[in-house]
């Protein structure tokens, strides 16, 4: 194992690093914008020790925390089959248009899933939800200055999406429920906690 050491303030980061890849085996590639491969790699200081790692190639996603003037967030309630739960989630979608600016995708998802437009967009977070397996990168945005959209755009709900319901929930209640493990969707928790900490930091700076 590498040696542990304390890192000073302002120096924390996730630096880019690439270990040698000796073989690549394609495991699965379907109609969805995902694929699975198995890389055979070595650590830079142990070139004779080869081992395999599965990689789920993912185009990335956007997540939208839409907050109104009463500090309520727009949320979705959607069945998720792999875990057998109806999850409380935020509007979200894949970055499956090559080269598209993530905020453009976020605007589209907010219109499609929430029937809303937003005047102001602020980037809250970038996160990799499962870096040990997947390349998925999530861009999380705060949307404010909300107004109704005339239609859902090209969105046509199917399957689980056709069963989706929506509601408005105070952000403070979402934070409490996430910390109490009553809601467990990761991007939702990341978004509301980041929003809350952002507001606290701004209040402390202005006081």
Descriptive account of the structure:
With 207 residues, the chain is an alpha+beta fold. Helix content is 21%, strand content 40%. The protein folds into 2 domains: 21-57, no CATH class; 61-206, Nucleoside Triphosphate Pyrophosphohydrolase. It has helices spanning 102-114, 171-179, 186-206, and strands at residues 21-29, 35-43, 46-57, 61-66, 72-80, 85-89, 92-94, 116-127, 138-148, 165-170. It starts with 20 loop residues before the first strand and ends with a helix. The mean pLDDT is 92.
Main sheet strand line-up: 7-4-9-8
Report the major sheet. 4 strands, mixed
Broad shape? globular
Which structural category fits the helices and strands? alpha+beta
Q: Compute the number of structural domains.
A: 2
Terminal CA distance reads 45 Å
Throw out a few tags for this protein:
207 residues; three-stranded antiparallel beta sheet; four-stranded mixed beta sheet; 10 strands; Nucleoside Triphosphate Pyrophosphohydrolase
Which helices and strands occur, and which strands form pairs?
Layout: E1 21-29, E2 35-43, E3 46-57, E4 61-66, E5 72-80, E6 85-89, E7 92-94, H1 102-114, E8 116-127, E9 138-148, E10 165-170, H2 171-179, H3 186-206
Parallel strand pairs: 4-9
Antiparallel strand pairs: 1-2, 2-3, 4-7, 5-6, 5-10, 8-9
């Amino acid at each position: 194992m590498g040696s542990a050491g304390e890192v000073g303030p302002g120096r924390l980061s996730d630096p880019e690093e690439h270990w040698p890849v000796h073989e690549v085996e394609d495991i699965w590639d379907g109609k969805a914008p995902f694929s699975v491969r198995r890389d055979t790699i070595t650590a830079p200081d142990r070139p004779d020790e080869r081992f395999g790692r599965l990689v789920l190639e993912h185009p990335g996603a956007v997540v939208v925390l839409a907050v109104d003037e009463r500090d309520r967030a727009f949320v979705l309630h959607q069945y998720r089959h792999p875990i057998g739960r109806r999850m409380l989630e935020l509007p979200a979608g894949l970055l499956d248009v090559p080269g598209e600016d993530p905020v453009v995708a976020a605007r589209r998802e907010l219109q499609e899933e929430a029937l809303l437009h937003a005047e102001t967009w602020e980037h809250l977070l970038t996160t990799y939800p499962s870096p040990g397996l997947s390349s998925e990168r999530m861009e999380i945005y705060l949307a404010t200055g909300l107004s109704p959209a005339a239609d859902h755009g090209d969105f046509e709900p199917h399957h689980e999406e056709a069963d989706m319901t929506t509601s408005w929930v105070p952000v403070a209640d979402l934070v409490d429920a996430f910390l109490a493990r009553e809601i467990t969707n990761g991007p939702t928790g990341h978004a509301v906690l980041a929003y809350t900490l952002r507001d606290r930091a701004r209040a402390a700076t202005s006081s």
